[in-house]
């Protein structure tokens, strides 16, 4: 068995805590090579946090560099559970336009956090950032959700309709100006993207209150910026509760099965629930029975990274 053999999975996430400060980055590791059995590392304590910006981070996403030179983690600069309580209108209209970034050579040692402004001045926030490597251009495409307001609306009092914006980077320090990418009636958030063969699959969440809302949906297209995406499925995960968001998608190492996790937040306990398919292109997803997904409750919005055996062994000691 080689250290670079595919083996195991790492989940980066935050933990819901209505009574305290849970908005920090946690790591959970698969039990062996099983993508349905997980344990939190570091005795359940967070691994990364920041006191700058809003003082909290949510929605972490982890990406491997294609050159083998390490990893980048990006997260939303947002602390919701404050002593005075959450104010979602304030967060959407006058939130942070930054993302929080950490770098790591090995998933065990991490740089200091840095805040990077990616949303334009007319944006109200920058939520759920994720990075997708564009092989053709040789850059990472960072996408995130933001509500944009008119230039003559400096107090951001107009309609608050989030859309997906994109920017590109090579080093997660400098980013190109953000541009609108995906808009839907009522708003769209939480996009995640995976490549499978010569196709790109994107998943996102349309606002529940939009007429005929797709809610969590699955589309496929020939490339990230091709306009020819087709919708394969809508309303994904609605059987788990009245409100789901934050899709994450990953394959097993042999590619024979894909998992789609959605963050159920409409009723306690909050946290991920899973669907699965053996044919990603079909858009046909079956729910994983609750008793088969062994994941602590309140495990929230993050990403799964397939590992190599040596990486899994190193993390297993944490």
Care to describe what's here?
- The protein contains two helices and 20 strands.
- The protein has a four-stranded antiparallel beta sheet with strand order 3-2-1-20. Strands 4-5-6-7 form a four-stranded antiparallel beta sheet, with no helix packed on it.
- A hairpin with a 2-residue loop joins β2 and β3.
- It is mainly beta.
- The two termini are 22 Å apart.
- It has one domain: Glycosyl hydrolase domain, family 43 (Tachylectin-2, Chain A), CATH 2.115.10.20.
- This is Glycoside hydrolase family 43 protein.
Number of E-state strands = 20
- CATH topology, by name, is Tachylectin-2, Chain A
Mean of all residue-level pLDDT scores: 96
Q: Tell me the count of domains.
A: 1
Structural class: mainly beta
Task: Output the radius of gyration.
Answer: 18 Å
The CATH class designation is Mainly Beta
What structural keywords apply?
mainly beta; Glycoside hydrolase family 43 protein; Glyco_hydro_beta-prop_sf; GH43_arabinanases; Tachylectin-2, Chain A; globular; four-stranded antiparallel beta sheet; 20 strands; single chain; 318 residues
């Amino acid at each position: 068995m080689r250290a670079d053999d595919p083996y195991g999975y790492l989940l980066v996430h935050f933990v819901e805590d209505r009574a305290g400060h849970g908005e920090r980055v946690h790591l959970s590791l698969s039990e062996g090579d099983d993508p349905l059995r997980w344990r939190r590392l570091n005795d359940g304590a967070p691994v990364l946090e920041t006191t700058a910006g809003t003082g909290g981070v949510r929605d972490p996403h982890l990406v491997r560099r294609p050159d083998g030179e390490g990893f980048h983690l990006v997260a939303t600069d947002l602390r919701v559970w404050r002593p005075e309580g959450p104010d979602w209108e304030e967060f959407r209209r006058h939130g942070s336009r930054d993302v929080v970034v950490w770098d790591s050579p090995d998933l065990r040692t991490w740089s200091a956090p840095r805040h990077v402004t990616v949303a334009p001045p007319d944006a109200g926030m920058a939520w759920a950032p994720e990075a997708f490597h564009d092989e053709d251009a040789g850059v990472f495409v960072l996408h995130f959700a933001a509500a944009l307001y008119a230039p003559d609306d400096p107090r951001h009092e107009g309609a608050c309709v989030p859309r997906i914006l994109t920017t590109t980077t090579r080093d997660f320090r400098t980013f190109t100006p953000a541009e609108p990418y995906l808009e839907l009636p009522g708003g769209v958030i939480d996009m995640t993207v995976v490549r499978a063969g010569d196709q790109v699959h994107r998943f996102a969440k349309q606002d529940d209150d939009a007429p005929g809302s797709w809610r969590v949906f699955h589309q496929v297209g020939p490339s990230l910026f091709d306009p020819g995406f087709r919708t394969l499925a809508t309303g994904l995960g609605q059987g788990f509760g009245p409100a789901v968001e934050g899709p994450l998608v990953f394959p097993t190492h042999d590619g024979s099965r894909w998992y789609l996790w959605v963050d159920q937040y409409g009723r306690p306990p909050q946290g991920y629930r899973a669907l699965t398919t053996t044919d990603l292109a079909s858009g046909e997803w079956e729910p994983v029975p609750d008793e088969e997904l062994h994941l602590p409750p309140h495990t929230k919005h993050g990403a799964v990274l397939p590992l190599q055996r040596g990486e899994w062994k190193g993390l297993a000691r944490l």
